[in-house]
Amino acid sequence: MSMRKNLRGPVLAALAAAGVASASNMARADNHIGGTLRLTAASAAGTLDPQINYTSQFWSLLVLTNDGLLTFKRTSGPDSNTLVPDLAVAIPQPQDGGKTYTFTLRKGIKFSNGQDVTPDDVVASFQRLFKVSSPNAGSWYNVIVGADACLQTPASCTLAGGVVANDSANTVTFHLTQPDPEFLYKLATPFGDVLPPDTPAHDLGTTAAAATGPYMITSYDPQKQLVMQRNPYFKAWSQDAQPPGYVDKIVYNFGAKPEDEVTAVENGDADWMFDAPPPDRLAEMASKYPKQIHINQMLAIYYAAMNVNLPPFNNKDARLAVNYAFNRRAAVNIYGGPRLAVPSCQILPPNFPGYEPYCPYTKTPGTTWTAPDMNKAMQYMKASGQAGQKVTVITDDQNVNPALGTYLVSVLNQLGFKATLKIISGDIEFTYIQNTNNHVQISITDWYQDYPAASDFINVLLSCGSFHPGSDASVNISGFCDKNIDAQIHQALVTAVSDPKAANKQWAQLDREITDQAPWVSMFTPKQLNFVSSRVGNFTFSDQFHLLFSQVWVQ
Known about the structure:
- Helix 1 (12-18) runs parallel beside helix 7 and helix 14 (483-498) packs antiparallel against helix 15 (500-517).
- The chain starts with 11 loop residues before the first helix and ends with a strand.
- Strands 11, 12, 13, 14, 15, 16 and 17 form a seven-stranded mixed β-sheet that branches. A five-stranded mixed β-sheet has the order 7-8-9-1-10, covered by helices on one side. The chain has a three-stranded antiparallel β-sheet with strand order 4-6-5, covered by helices on one side.
- The chain is α+β, with helices and mostly antiparallel strands and 555 residues long.
- A hairpin with a 4-residue loop joins strand 5 (163-166) and strand 6.
- The protein has 15 helices and 21 strands.
- It has helices at 12-18, 56-65, 119-131, 147-152, 183-187, 258-267, 282-288, 316-325, 328-335, 374-384, 401-415, 429-434, 455-462, 483-498, 500-517, and strands at 36-41, 70-72, 83-85, 100-104, 163-166, 171-175, 215-221, 225-230, 249-254, 272-273, 293-297, 300-306, 341-343, 390-396, 418-424, 442-448, 520-531, 536-537, 541-542, 546-547, 553-554.
């Protein structure tokens, strides 16, 4: 998912000396219940619609308000990648060779409007997922029987024969056209949330859906503030899936500069900041507030997507030239240095299923990036015939992204392009760069895992099914569509049903093949720095949903 987040730290020695670490204590401590958790960010992250929003910033909120049939265990460390039943009583065994799953719903769960959660709600929610053109409808959920018709005519989507409710048995059954080894993962993201059947079939925008979780959103002004309060109908049904929250209220303020966010956290006026601390504040933070800093490895990639359908980057040689010329060490240093980022040439991040180190775009091709190769870059540039072409680099106005954009412009100009930088608001940049109507040639963005499977990067970001011309929900930003690659993606998904290890080998091969096609300039993989106030306890960081706001308390 898009994170729209940059976390820097050039004062690396100070941070290392501070001995910061991520730790958690999941034991329930009722004496810590109550109070208000105060969050701050430079900007909001768009719509509150759980079936449309695709940002980590708001996914960490939506997992507190809404639930799907399954979720990822609400804990820290590797266990946070474990699937657990949520609205369902158990994780069902696949039937019919992996093409059928029957879920039994828990009884007694209500929405925040007082309505009971029923099997019919599940059917309506998955119909709605297609009606609102959820970003991954065509790449994740197209395996459901009836999905093809829904993709053709979303407004009349029924998923007939694909999602079947049995009210008397309190079950819902999914029928797939073929086995999908990651289908259960996909149900565990906010896209799979179950909503009331009368939820409008359009983007909810600033209006929240009825909640099932411990909190509900009671007000939202993207220019100012979001407020969450306890859901009066919530009764805990699973500590693993949706534990009750400690704080009574969460207030998320928008519009502050990162400099002011740091000061607010230091002074106790805010409890957590979303944005990157300015580099000139990190020495002070590390020396004065070391126990309030937490650094966590992220399964993510920062990259510049090149539009393979528009000049000059519809020319492969031009894309290769940029990859060989790009100094990934410079990008790492802009981000915060080698302790907070690692150079990358490929699609998949380290320590991820299917990852095998691969870097062709360096002076010494192999497994790691060493240095740019300007001689080879200029050879490809000459072969491309694209010198003198005008190029506009798009980035948002958040933290280090303008600096990364400025550096990328310098690389393009060094190659012979006539490049300029266009900085747009972080509120709209992610959707803007997805829409082909905006004719974006190259843009800077990032991607954080939705779930622990290679397809979440390769299939979601670079398959034909993820490319939707004219849509704000087209996460294949480069527009890369290769029928041979798509066939291999399909084969890897099939292999994963019976042999995940063999499938990971196939994903590794796909990673190399796509990297060689150069639809991106992969820059680096990041770590996340969280800065919290002195009154925050029980810091709990999930690989899936990051800081679990419901599980922290305020003293």
